[in-house]
Amino acid sequence: MAVKRGRSEIVDAIQQIILGAVFPVESWRWVLDQHRNDRASGTQLLGFPILFGCVKDTAKGLASTNGTIRRLVADAKLTNHGNLFHSTCEVGSIGVLSAELICRASKDEQVFLEIVRNRLVHGYLDGASRSHRNFTIVENPGFKVISVSKSEREELVAKFCPNGRLHEGIQVIFDRHKEGFKLYCDMILEHFKFDLSEVQNALSEGQLLFSETEAAFNTLRRELDTCYQ
Q1: Where are the beta strands (DSSP E) in 14-158?
Q2: pLDDT score recorded for residue 125
Q3: C-alpha to C-alpha distances, 202 to 175, 199, 215, nearest whole angstrom
Q4: Please, are residues 114 and 148 in contact by the beta-carbon 8 Å criterion?
Q5: Other residues' Cβ atoms within 10 Å of the Cβ of residue 96
Q6: Under 8 Å between Cβ of 88 and 73
Q7: pTM of the full predicted structure?
Q8: Regarding predicted confidence, which is higher, 90 or 141?
Q9: CA 141 to chain centre
């Protein structure tokens, strides 16, 4: 069976996956910072749907049945070069973990936060006025695309913001998920924040890039279970 991608292509892909997971978390982790008894600021609350969407994009991009990481792992296995296959599998854990975090949010929460995120990032979208729009929901296990009508979207926004106050609607979701997202973000920054030139050199030379990802992620899963009880 022919190798679909060469070693250098796989190394570059791994670098981009790491960067794609770390950079948004590094950029938006601040929205979770607050003293225990303080209310989040309005800016923090508006930033949370963006952070949530970044993590959800990671889950959608990497952990789907036919997603990027599965093909990449298959190609890395065929190269038979040092620890490249092992390191590629370890990087794939990012997608699995991000999906496990997002699926703790309800379907309504996921749709509502995507609506808010699109408004904040893009302003008016053509899709905002369509009679139906598709949303990808992260479930346990897997993903599901659902169609949500305009009236259903309006009802959903009214459900979370009964007084028309967007910040109050986000606050409820933020309070439920902030500790879980702190755990996830801190783990990503601790375990995957590398100088990309070091990543490239290690992978190109067949060195072991990660050694304790599974154990670290299993610990994080237990911590997530605790904070969502």
Answers
A1: 132-138, 143-149
A2: 66
A3: 40, 5, 21
A4: no
A5: 16
A6: yes
A7: 0.88
A8: 90
A9: 15
